[in-house]
Design goal:
This protein has eight helices and two strands. It is mostly helical. Helix 5 (97-106) crosses helix 8.
Amino acid sequence: MSLLKDWRDHAYGLDDRTPEGKEFWLKYFNKEKSIYEELLEHPEEIVSGTIKELAEKYDTDIETMTGFLDGIDDSLTLSNNLDNVTEDSVVNLGYDKEKLYMNMVGCNAQWLYELPQWDKLLSVEKRNELFKLEKSSHTVIKPPKVGRNDPCPCGSGKKY
């Protein structure tokens, strides 16, 4: 069984309305926040290593590290193939700053996109621009409807 499947079965199998589920997600989000703080603190350093090494580096277990990798994978410059990873698989955490910020906004992870470490990476104007861009990308804008008595859009002059 793959690490990713184990993580997803465990994490998404929990009911987040139960005390156990709430405790699990709270613990995960706190660990995720601390890993992001460290990654954003040193943006020039491209972190790579085995999942086991990264779990030790960030003081967490392999399952939580796999969950973190699953979450950050869309923001990486070079995606890790997480479907078949083992704890000895080498992964890379080189991320695209703007993509990461927009994905955090897209997930409504306010505790992540408001981290003070972003101040050194992206200007306030740039963050506001990315925030609006991400929020507007999910907004449906309908074209104006042609009314009953409006001329036909084909240009024939007849009523629609």
